[in-house]
Amino acid sequence: MKKLLCVLFCGIFMIWSxxxxxxxxxxxxxxxxxxxxxxxxxxxxIGGNLSYISDVPxxxxxFGVNFGLGANIKLSDKFYLVPQFQPLQPKGNRxxxxxxxxxxxxxxxxxxxxxxxxxxxxxxxxxIYYRPIERWRxxxxxxxxxLTKAVDFYENGGNSLELDVKDQLSKTDFGVAVDVMFExxxxxxxxxxxxxxxxxxxxxxxxxxxxxxxxxxxxxLGFPFISDEQLEKNxxxxx
Length: 239
What we know:
This protein has helices at about 1-15, 20-35, 105, 230-239, and strands at about 40-55, 60-75, 80-95, 115-130, 135-155, 160-165, 170-185, 195-200, 215-225. It is of the alpha+beta class. It has one domain (about 35-239): Porin (Beta Barrel), CATH 2.40.160. Strands 1-2-3-4-5-7-8-9 form an 8-stranded antiparallel barrel. β5 and β6 (about 160-165) form a beta hairpin. α1 packs antiparallel against α2. The longest helix has 16 residues, at about 20-35.
């Protein structure tokens, strides 16, 4: 019961918090070992994203850093349920564009220039993982994202301009995510590190009336908080 209350508290606090990624890390560090069992544990996830937006002429990928917290629930020896909370999940792209504010002096500075569309989301994916052999897991599941910030960043030599475009975009993103995970158990004193390679394909129109959708390729490191019993088992395997 105490473990369940701790998990619920973590979830409520993170969703409520405006600075979710900081609180998520603190809560995981405080409660991670306390709530861990053979069938449940939390993990911190951090990595990098290569994102793009489909159907954008001359569109190029953009790089971002992602952060999240996962809850790993063992359903059987082969299957796992893993909901995640990702308060730092950047998306977007780069493209050639021209500023159109109606202010001639300003617009003239940013014609046919590089634009970085920076989209900030809070993402909540829910994976079902299959573990066919030891150390390898393959996951798939839905992901919903909530847009928190959207800007077009224009560059012109030493000048730059940031334009808020959030009102032009869908506030909610939804799609399918797939993930391949490899467990490296001989790190962190037997607690291990999980290496993830994942891909997300958005199914929602980013701008109404267009075919523009989010796509993200990510590489992530997961740092699980495991129980003392599981730690002993991991260390025993190395002997």
